[in-house]
Amino acid sequence: MTTVTLGPEGTYSHRAAQAVTDDEISFSESVTAIVEAVADGEAERGVVPVENSIEGSVTESLDAFAEYDVAVVEEIITPIRHALLAQDDSFSLVASHAQALAQCRGWLDEHYPGVNVEAVASTARGVERARGDADIAAIGHPENATNGTELKVLAEDIQDRSSNATRFVVVAPKSERSEAGGKSSFIVYPDVDYPGLLLELLEPFADRDINLTRVESRPSGERLGDYVFHIDISAGLYEQRTQDALADIEDIAGKGWVRRLGSYDSKTVVN
Predict the structure, then answer these.
(1) Which of 116, 167, 262, 263 has the smallest set of CB atoms within 10 Å of its CB?
(2) Residue 218 lies in a domain
(3) Radius of gyration of the chain (CA)
(4) In a domain, 269, yes or no
(5) CATH code at 92?
């Protein structure tokens, strides 16, 4: 089984993928490309980040789920420990993924005020840049410095909050969508707009005592002010209350569509 995730080797996504498979792992530098590969049958699994406890949702992932019909089959919660890596402390630029830079913004402002920053495709790509250029530092997992002799760990745990964690999901072909699991995700595109619409979309869950763990809107791309809603709940699609709630949602979104990404269980991986 081939699993594809964000690369190159050594990213936090790679670490999450290693926690769910012992099979071959290949790499992409685009979340959209990962989801597309699974939807098109080019990969059996994809592991992508969807949410960070500091910076919020990974919007590229949400948009890819709306564009490509795939299943979510597992959730992985990974505490994120960032370290500052460089050949020495004479660097003038910090290169890392935009999320990592944002998660360490306060620490960098305090310890390296005015340092230049550059967003790259992944934390591992920033590490590669730092290995090849003494003027560049990277933000990544501390173990990234041990994979070679060029880099030193200048500081550990530089994330602005110790509770920093990222939520990853494992995506699979839509044929593997499951109704079993403690959590479920789906996408709603009502294709209508009127006062009280969002309230109507939420009431079926409140009426059945279903907890919503995330509700987020993303532009549909059809027209300005038109939105797709991403919803996660603490209930399985196998439950009658969930089925009844979704039946109400499908009636409300009769002019649009509802995509059930599936039900799944969650685990926390410390690495």
Answers:
(1) 116
(2) yes
(3) 20
(4) no
(5) 3.40.190.10
Cα-Cα-Cα-Cα torsion 174, 175, 176, 178, nearest 10 degrees, comes to 80
Task: State whether residue 74 is helix, strand or coil.
Answer: strand
- At residue 270 the predicted structure's pLDDT band, cuts being 50, 70 and 90, is confident
pTM: 0.86
Both 96 and 222 in one domain: the answer is: no
For residues 186 and 156, give the distance between their C-alpha atoms in angstroms, rounded to a whole number: 37
- Whether the per-residue pLDDT at 258 is higher than 70: the answer is yes
Instruction: Provide the residue range defining the domain that includes 129.
Output: 83-156
- 144 and 127 Cβ atoms separated by less than 8 Å: yes
The half-sphere exposure of 203 on its side-chain side, counting CA atoms within 13 A, is 7
- 270 in a structural domain: no
- Total structural domains in the chain? 3
pLDDT, the chain, mean? 93
Per DSSP, the three-state class of 86 is: strand
Q: Is 7 a residue whose pLDDT tops 90?
A: no
Task: Answer positive or negative: Cα dihedral of 18, 23, 27, 33.
Answer: negative
Q: What is the 8-class DSSP label of residue 36?
A: H
- CB of 227 closer than 8 Å to CB of 217: yes
**Token pair of 250, please?**
């499908």
The residue assigned the tokens 């597309």 is: 36
- What is the Cβ-side half-sphere exposure of residue 114, based on CA atoms within 13 angstroms? 0
Q: Residue range 205-217: average pLDDT?
A: 97
Helix axes 240-252 and 197-206, enclosed angle (nearest 10): 170
